[in-house]
Every structure is written in C-alpha cells, then in structure tokens.
C-alpha cells in the first residue's frame, strides 16, 4: 500500500523550502500514476456503494415472477405440469438460479370402489422441479422429488381411503440450481404426479413461483 | 466528503517551522493513507468489468467427518450459495407384500417401534444421509439464510391393551415428529412437533448472523415420539417414521 511519509522537524532548526514542501513532493511522487503505488487495499470494500457502479441496474438480480390464479389438476402416475415459468437463457457454470414455487393444493376427488390396502399404500402426490431444454427434448428434472400425503390415518400403513383428508395446503418447493456446464433453457417447470392414477385427483390453484438470477 | 478544518492558530512571535506550515495538510495525507470515505471515490470508478467473476465450487462436505463431499456452491461478489440434496427417485418400491402398487422409495431412514433403532433424542440425519442434510461451508461476515426441506412420513399406529376383552384402537395421538436446523450446533429453526398421521414435506427457513470462518456447519436433525401410556400394550401396527428426499441450501449474504 502506498503511503506518504512526512519527516518531522527537529526543534531549533530553520525551516527550508524543501522541508515545507516535502509532504507535497511525497504526495506527488506517490500519485504519479505508476502502477502499484496505490494498491487495491487502499480502497476498502465498505467504501464502494451502488452509486459507484456505472450501470447499477445491470448489476442487480434478474427477478422473474409467475402467478396463475386458475387451477390445474394432476391425476396421472407420470409427471405433468403444475406451473411453467418461461425463462429463456443459458445458465452457465458461473451462474446460479434460485427457484421457488408455492402452489395451493387440495385433493378434489377420490373415486372408485371401497377402500383397499393399496389406497393407503399409494395415496401420495409428488412435486419436482424441471427445466425445458432449448431446442426441444424432454424436460429434465433438477430438484429432488418431494412427497405429500392425501390421507390422515391412525392405523399404521394398512388403512383405507375412507380416511381421506380434505385439505387446503401450500406446498412450498425451492431449489438452487448451479449447473456444472452451460445449459440453454426455455422454461422452469414445476411438475406433479400421484400414486393412484385411477382414483386420486389433486388440484393446484393460485400457483405462485419466482426465479432469481444474480446478474454479474 | 471528509471535512478539513484549520486547527492551528498561529501565535505571535511563535517560531515557524516545517511542522507548523504542514500541519494543515496532515488530514489530506491521512486520507491518502487510507482513511477514505465513500464519497471520496469517484462515481465512475467501477463498472461491471471490475468485478470478479463468480465461481462454482464442488466437493463441499456433506458429512461431519467429510467422508462425502456431494455439495456444490456458487461464490459471488456479494453473496454465496451452497446446496446439497438427497434424491429418492425410483417409483419401484413396494411398501408391503400385501400391496400391489409400487411407489417412491424406499426411505433413506426409518425409525420403527418394532425395531431397536428408535431414537427419541435429537438425531442428526447426516448419520443416515450421505448428502442432503449437512453442509460445511466457508463464510464471510454477514447473514446466513437458507432452507431445509425433508420429505417425512409418519402415519399413526395402533396398539392393543391387555384386559377383558382386549381393546384395539387407533392411537398415535402423542406421536410427533420434529425437524430442526442447527448452525454450529445452535438451533436456528424447527418445525415444532408435528402430529403423526400424514406424509408431508416440510420446509424450514432459517436466518442467523455469522462471522468470517473457514468452516461453518449447518445440519438437519430430527426427533420423534410415540405414546405407550401403559406397559400392557402391544403394537399390531408399528409406529414408523420414514424419511425420504432431503435438501439443504444456504445463502451467505456478506456484510
């Protein structure tokens, strides 16, 4: 770190022009633009504010929000769309995408005959986050699969679906996506599936989601 | 901008020396020597190209003994993110021989009242999970914010009391499962006791200030209870807690 020096004068010596000018001469020499005389540590990080940025807006995060008030139902044993947020971008190895969904779920139907053990054994629904690759192809899962039950039961794992719970619940799902290689995408998609594709229908409404990508 | 004041009053017949002449300049030089205010830096001094490009880091420890390092991170100029997850992905698990439909599974960890593995104390899930429940990360002074997500299944159970006649009923009213998030062994978030009787994915958001450190441990723990009430009971259906997919991510927002 460059510093100016100042030689203090001893008592009873006559001031000289050189002595009086010495700090200014020192300052001039240390700020002559030579690389290395002023080092980066001279500017502490606390000194830098957003006002110092040439283009503050370009350096903020990119926020993308998705909201769908209407409902969608899921009743198959393969993953289908719950909420789709268009996001056309290439996510690189130095990028990070924060993903959050928060759909409002309810079980709308249990149909069919009387309860069987299988009803209890397979009464869950699941959520998972996917991306849609640019240029086509199947959606690619990125998050874990998270499960949610549709029944409340007090007898181990052998109850029946007569113990189905009617409920409304938010199902928040979040993920931090940091791909190892450049990945061109067009959409971030929350998908759902059920265990019992014959008898169970789960409805999602007031679907909320947002994406955050730092832009620097 | 820092103000500069005239602070030396020249006295009559005082002997002038270099120090006296130069004292007014000392604050200027002290600022040059590093005592700068933000306003003294020119507004046009920085642009995007001056910032360090964020880096991706791999092999973040996901177990306390660092035998597994399945976490990944992203280190930016103002914050960093780290994540680990455990994915249960196959829908080929038959829960019970009496059933015919395969579902997602098997669980990563199970507590069962009919086996000696029930842990009523607070149990670090990283003992069972090689990833998804523990992160050891470097931090800078600031805030640590994050979210733990665990897919938990705890249905109720039944028990039979001895008597005349024996009574079998649905119990489990005291069955509870609780998830916790600890940062350096300090509890920062919990679900609170959740009643048995359902499958649920819990999210636990948390936030805590942190200092600069080479290693901060964040982990998910769990505890569960079941009620006995009397020692003259048997359990036709075991109390059983299943843990499936898990995920833990944190953001270190620098001060």
List keywords for this structure.
heterodimer, A: 216 residues, mainly beta, Jelly Rolls, 2 domains, five-stranded antiparallel sheet, four-stranded antiparallel sheet, rod-shaped, B: 255 residues, six-stranded antiparallel sheet, 2 helices
Summed up:
The complex is a heterodimer of chains A (216) and B (255). With 216 residues, chain A is mostly beta strands.
What is the element layout, followed by pairings?
The complex is a heterodimer of chains A (216) and B (255).
Chain A: H1 17-30, H2 56-59, E1 61-68, E2 72-74, E3 80-91, E4 97-101, E5 104-110, H3 117-121, E6 124-133, E7 140-141, E8 146-149, E9 169-170, E10 173-177, E11 183-194, E12 200-205, E13 207-214
Antiparallel strand pairs in A: 1-13, 2-12, 3-11, 4-10, 4-13, 5-9, 5-12, 6-7, 6-8, 6-11
Chain B: H1 18-22, H2 26-32, E1 55-60, E2 71-75, E3 79-86, E4 109-112, E5 123-124, E6 134-139, E7 142-155, E8 158-161, E9 167-170, E10 176-183, E11 186-190, E12 194-195, E13 198-210, E14 213-225, E15 233-237, E16 240-254
Antiparallel strand pairs in B: 1-2, 2-3, 3-16, 4-16, 5-14, 6-14, 7-13, 7-16, 8-9, 8-15, 10-11, 10-12, 10-14
């Amino acid at each position: 770190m460059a510093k100016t020096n100042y030689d203090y004068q001893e008592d009873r010596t006559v001031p000289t022009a050189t002595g009086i000018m010495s700090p200014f001469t020192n300052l001039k020499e240390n700020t002559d633009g030579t690389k290395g005389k002023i080092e980066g540590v001279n500017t502490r990080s606390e000194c830098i504010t957003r006002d110092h940025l040439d283009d503050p807006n370009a350096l903020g995060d990119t926020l993308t929000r998705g909201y769908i008030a209407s409902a969608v139902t899921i009743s198959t044993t393969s993953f289908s769309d719950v909420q789709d947020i268009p996001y056309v971008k290439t996510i690189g190895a130095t990028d990070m995408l924060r993903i959050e969904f928060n759909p409002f779920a309810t079980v709308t139907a249990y149909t069919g005959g009387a309860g069987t053990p299988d009803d209890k054994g397979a009464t869950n629904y699941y959520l998972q986050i996917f991306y849609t690759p640019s240029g086509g192809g199947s959606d690619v899962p990125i998050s874990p699969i998270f499960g949610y039950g549709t029944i409340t039961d007090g007898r181990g794992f052998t109850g029946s679906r007569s113990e189905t719970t009617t409920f409304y619940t938010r199902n928040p799902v979040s993920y931090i996506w940091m791909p190892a290689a450049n990945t061109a995408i067009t959409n971030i998609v929350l998908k759902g599936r059920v265990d019992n594709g014959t008898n169970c229908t789960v409805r999602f409404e007031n679907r909320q989601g947002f994406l955050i990508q730092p832009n620097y | 901008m820092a103000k500069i004041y005239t602070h030396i009053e020249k006295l009559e017949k005082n002997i002038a020396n270099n120090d006296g002449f130069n004292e007014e300049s000392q604050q200027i030089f002290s600022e040059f020597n590093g005592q700068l205010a933000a306003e003294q830096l020119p507004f046009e001094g920085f642009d995007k190209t001056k910032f360090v490009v964020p880096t991706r880091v791999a092999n973040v420890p996901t177990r306390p003994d660092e035998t597994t390092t399945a976490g990944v991170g992203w280190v930016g100029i103002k914050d960093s993110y780290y994540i680990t997850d455990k994915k249960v992905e196959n829908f080929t698990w038959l829960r019970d021989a009496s059933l015919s439909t395969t579902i997602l599974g098997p669980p990563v960890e199970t507590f069962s009242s009919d086996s000696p593995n029930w842990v009523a104390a607070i149990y670090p899930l990283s003992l069972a999970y090689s990833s998804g429940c523990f992160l050891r990360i470097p931090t800078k002074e600031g805030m640590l914010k994050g979210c733990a997500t665990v897919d938990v299944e705890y249905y109720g159970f039944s028990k039979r009391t001895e008597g005349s006649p024996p009574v079998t009923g649905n119990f489990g009213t005291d069955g509870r499962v609780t998830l916790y998030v600890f940062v350096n062994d300090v509890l920062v978030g919990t679900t609170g006791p959740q009643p048995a009787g359902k499958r649920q994915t819990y999210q636990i958001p948390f936030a805590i200030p942190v200092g600069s450190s080479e290693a901060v441990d964040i982990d998910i723990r769990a505890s569960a209870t079941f009620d006995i009430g009397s020692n003259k009971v048997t359990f036709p259906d075991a109390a059983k807690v299943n843990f499936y997919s898990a995920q833990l991510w944190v953001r270190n927002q620098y001060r």
